[in-house]
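Sanity check

After download, print the first record. It should look like this:
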Amino acid sequence: MSLRVYNTLSGKKEEFKPIEPGKVRMYVCGVTVYDYCHIGHARANIVFDIIYRYLQYAGYDVTYVRNYTDVDDKIIKRANERGISSRELSEEFIRAFDEDMATLGLALPTHQPKATDYIAEIIAICEKLISKGLAYEAGGDVYYRVRKFPGYLKLSKRNMEEMQAGARIAPGEQKEDPMDFALWKAAKPGEPSWESPWGAGRPGWHIECSAMSSSLLGETFDIHGGGRDLIFPHHENEIAQSEGASGKPFVNYWLHNGFVNVDQEKMSKSLGNFFTIRDILKSYDPEVLRFFILTAHYRSPIDFSDQNLKEAKAGLSRFYEALKAADETLRSHPLPERPVCPEISDAEREIYDRIENLEDLFAAAMDDDFNTAAAIGHLFEAVRGINRLIGEARFDECNLSLRVIEDGAKKLRELGGVLGLFGSDPVAWLEGQKSAGLQGAGLSAEAIEELIEERRAARQNRDFARADQIRDALAAQGIELLDSKDGTSWKVK
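Expected structure tokens:
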């Protein structure tokens, strides 16, 4: 199966055909660096990190550009409030962004340009657009004439006349048409500025990405990504600027991730349901957040809640528990070179075939518009098979089950790595989650072991009411007891 992606421009899935065979050029809009990143930023960046990783796994040579917007109205306002320069503020939050993305396990893009390093390129695009009659200077500002670009709104599929009805010219603007947008803004007192043919000023938001992407990837490239909220006006205006200047198609495939809702409401500061990545990581391991995001298709909305994070933690724990059990089984039963025994049951054959075909199943899911939810579903099926083999394996002279357990664990780690998952030592990761859970519950491992021993004694004395009371009390604090023929163990739910 060849890779198919949903292209926002066409509104349908298309076979992915890069401009240059074997190579992919991809640009993803980064953050405006004036504050700490929130869960929405986490989703967008994790989504395109996975797309980057999978394209490399599929054999492509990928040039991945993710920018920093380091000059903007919000940056200037926040810097003035704090009494520092815009550069100081932007550098502070670039460092914070880099720290957050490293904590989330993101691979570094090929290039991470800053808008302020591309002022000359921005001015050059503005001059070209003016020379073509697509832009004009007015009082030191430069505006784009949207009605002169025939393809305007082809990405967002909006209606120009309906938008015109609600458009207004703000005080101080000298637009010819309310729909026109700023490419260059004349300097105001106390703002950062650069010299230009139209006087001192600074770039508008949209023109920055046109300059950075074309400089690093060429006038036409393969993939442009970002959140759905960027489709209009940002990406629409990028198309108008870039295609207006070059006369060539800007991007072949537009990919957009869905919104993040919080407890089924849109996340916003006004609703008080706004969470930074740093807030979340006080309570959850970074890999839990990554796993949570990947359990939904990237184009779908995703509901962020404490309960959903707990479920993601439980799901991720199942993988680590399976890898831990596989490692322990393989250590206990060495694998000498012996012939594979052909006499196996139908149930065993089903497990063996699923694990043998796991890479193909994984690739088929990811080739269907990067369907990480389906890919993780196939990995879960492999975990179920591994666990069943560990529980029922005939560790006889042929060692077939052991070989399949070994192969399954290896494939889980390799394919998990494509998703940025399962890279930790299973014992250490599970112990870390247990310790974190104990801190949240206000319990110690010693106290839990004492209660387990008390419960064992109660059951031995047939005091089942007390035994159940201990179990229920621990469950209420997030501690699950696991009874087996070898005794009772526990884990944090």
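If your output differs, re-run the checksum step. Summary of this record's structure: The chain has a mean pLDDT of 91.
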